[in-house]
Design goal:
By secondary structure, the chain is α+β, with helices and mostly antiparallel strands. The chain contains four helices and two strands, in the order E-H-H-E-H-H. The chain is elongated, with a radius of gyration of 14 Å. The termini are far apart.
């Protein structure tokens, strides 16, 4: 087993991506999610800790960067407009 190095810290990666979870919930609801609903979705989502370099490779393979969980509300407001 390898251990993370200071230059490759562990980060959270959501599966499915958090942006996908939020889009599905908003579509199901039929109107914009509230901040409380976005936070609840994030808090209940499945995630794993991986090395930052692995997360970057996952983003590249997926073709987009997922929402940052620490800034979920702000980033969701931007993502939902695209």
């Amino acid at each position: 087993m390898t251990t993370p190095h200071d230059d490759d810290p562990l980060v959270l990666v959501f599966d499915p991506p958090l942006v996908t979870v939020l889009r599905a919930r908003e579509t199901e609801r039929g109107q914009p999610l509230t901040e409380a609903e976005v936070l609840a979705a994030r808090d209940g989502a499945i995630c794993m800790a991986v090395a930052y370099s692995v997360a970057l490779k996952m983003d590249q393979a997926r073709g987009y960067h997922d929402i940052d969980a620490e800034h979920v509300w702000t980033e969701w407001q931007k993502a939902r407009l695209n």
